[in-house]
Design brief:
- With 204 residues, the protein is α+β, with helices and mostly antiparallel strands.
- The chain is built from 6 helices and 6 strands; from the N terminus they run ββββββαααααα.
- A 6-stranded antiparallel sheet has the order 1-2-3-4-5-6.
- Helix 1 (66-84) packs antiparallel against helix 2 (89-103) and helix 1 (66-84) packs parallel to helix 4 (116-128).
- The longest helix is centred in the C-terminal third of the chain and has 21 residues, at 183-203.
- The chain is elongated and about 70 Å long.
- This is FLYWCH-type domain-containing protein.
């Protein structure tokens, strides 16, 4: 029995060639249903999900190949790395692909491994969890203590006011957004703001 996750980070059990997702949790057990629909086969596990209590019915679906398990394990590793490392996400993706090819030389990754553009949204969401949410107004801007010091604990926010050329400041800020791979968050925030302004104009 092996655990992986879906592209939306939901837990998956891999058991005897079949995959199961959580159906119901009880006080002393949990019930998992076959991931392939309309197959209704289920597993009952003890609360800690370490042992199987009961296996119901017979599968009407075909077993999954080992390729799917390998791909899901790689995606789990990618998500973990995006939260722990600062490497660009496309680079992390490429490195994990290479690991799979080296570790499984007989597998054709091009036929079963998800493309970057199909999983990058979930990877960027994972990375965004490391950063404070973007404030909508200057009054809502609160910088957590951990973001006020450098790697060695020295303060790096040394001024309370911004003076000088606003264009240069904007360019510097945009470079930092690109470095942290937060472009999607900024574009999404701008789109929501534009939509809100447009709706307010229509109402008035």
């Amino acid at each position: 029995m092996q655990f992986t996750t879906t592209s939306r980070s939901a837990p998956v059990i891999n058991y005897q060639g079949f995959q199961y997702t959580i159906k119901q949790e009880y006080k002393i057990s949990s019930e998992w249903r076959c991931r392939a629909r309309p197959c209704t086969t289920s597993l009952s596990l003890c609360r800690d999900n370490k042992s199987i209590i009961l296996e119901r019915d017979v599968h009407i679906c075909t077993p999954n190949s080992q390729k799917m398990v390998v791909a899901e394990e790689a995606v789990i590793c990618m998500k973990q790395r995006t939260m722990e490392e600062t490497l660009p996400i496309p680079q992390i993706y490429s490195q994990e692909i290479i690991k799979i090819r080296v570790g499984n030389p007989t597998m054709d990754t091009g036929t079963f491994f998800p493309l970057l553009n199909s999983i990058d949204s979930s990877l960027y969401r994972k990375r965004a969890q490391n950063y404070p949410k973007l404030s909508k107004t200057i009054d809502e801007l609160i910088i957590p203590d951990g973001w006020k010091v450098g790697l060695n604990g020295e303060p790096f926010l040394l001024v309370n006011e911004i003076s000088g050329c606003f264009i240069h400041y904007s360019q510097s800020l945009w470079r930092k957004v690109q470095e942290l791979e937060l472009i999607r968050c900024v574009k999404s925030s701008n789109l929501k703001m534009s939509t809100r302004i447009s709706n307010n104009k229509k109402k008035s």
